[in-house]
């Protein structure tokens, strides 16, 4: 301990140098998962510089910490509440309109909200526009449940369009034929902007934050055709007539 203290007296900048190196380590841990893995050799090098080649326990600690931090990143997604609503999104259905899956179309349009500071969308690289369940269609349906953790959120399960983010165009639009697999429910449209790492960076939607306005309905395909329903009604009526006829004949025979 005395030797270490004497070294610091002789070289006052030693403590500052170590502090700077620890700062480098902290900055590395704040990076993305990909950058952490790529900078593993640098972490080990800094550990050797700070503690010497004999301090293998420190190196082991850094490696374990790195792996744990990577695991945490993969377990937790971005919180929806942390995203800015910087996109303006519009959809063609009128409030309360009922559309048919596999037949009707929806035209969606999106753009950057110009009320935000210019350059806010400089990190946006890709876009996804999705069809999302309204709260009324999520009641008692855990498979449609909303979660602030976007990696667990099940609100928006149907992709309408995805592609590069176009910052030069004032308005982007796309016409989508509602898929045959879309179930009967009440919906709205939401768009997500993603950064270079594929992480959600911003959003916009056709409804208010409470998701109660400008909602529309989609009637899904049940697998039953009108002709089948008509045939089943006819056969049911015929069976009733036959049954009454049978009882009438038996009664006449008894007389």
From TrEMBL:
Manganese as UniProt keyword: no
Write out the entry's keywords from A to Z: Membrane, Transmembrane, Transmembrane helix
Q: Does the keyword Transmembrane helix apply?
A: yes
Which InterPro entries does the UniProt record give? Transptr_NO3_Nar2
Recorded GO cellular component terms are: plasma membrane
- Lineage of the source organism? Eukaryota, Viridiplantae, Streptophyta, Embryophyta, Tracheophyta
Tell me the Gene Ontology biological-process terms attached to this UniProt entry: response to nitrate
Q: Which domain of life is it from?
A: Eukaryota
User: Where, by residue number, does the polypeptide cross the bilayer?
Assistant: 230-249
PANTHER family under this entry? HIGH-AFFINITY NITRATE TRANSPORTER 3.1, HIGH-AFFINITY NITRATE TRANSPORTER 3.2
Q: What is this protein called?
A: High-affinity nitrate transporter
Gene Ontology MF: a single term: nitrate transmembrane transporter activity
């Amino acid at each position: 301990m005395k030797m270490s203290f004497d070294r610091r007296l002789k070289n006052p900048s030693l403590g500052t140098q170590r502090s700077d190196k620890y700062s480098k380590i902290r900055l590395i841990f704040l990076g993305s998962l990909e950058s952490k893995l790529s900078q593993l050799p640098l972490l080990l090098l800094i550990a050797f510089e700070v503690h010497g080649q004999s301090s293998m326990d420190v190196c082991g600690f850094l490696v374990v910490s790195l792996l744990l931090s990577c695991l945490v990143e993969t377990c937790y997604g971005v919180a929806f509440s942390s995203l800015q609503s910087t996109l303006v999104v519009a959809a063609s259905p009128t409030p309360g309109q009922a559309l048919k899956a596999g037949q009707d179309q929806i035209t969606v349009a999106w753009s950057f909200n110009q009320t935000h500071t210019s350059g806010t969308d400089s990190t946006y690289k890709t876009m996804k526009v999705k069809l999302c369940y309204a709260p009324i269609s999520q009641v008692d349906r855990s498979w449609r449940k909303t979660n602030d953790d976007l990696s667990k959120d099940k609100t928006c399960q149907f992709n309408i369009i995805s592609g590069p983010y176009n910052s030069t165009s004032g308005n982007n639009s796309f016409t989508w034929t509602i898929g045959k697999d879309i179930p009967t429910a009440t919906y709205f449209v939401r768009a997500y902007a993603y950064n270079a790492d594929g992480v959600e960076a911003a959003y916009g939607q056709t409804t208010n934050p409470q998701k109660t306005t400008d909602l529309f309905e989609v009637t899904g395909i049940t697998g039953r055709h009108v002709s089948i329903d008509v045939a089943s009604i006819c056969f049911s009526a015929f069976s009733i007539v036959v049954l009454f006829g049978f009882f009438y004949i038996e009664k006449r025979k008894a007389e």
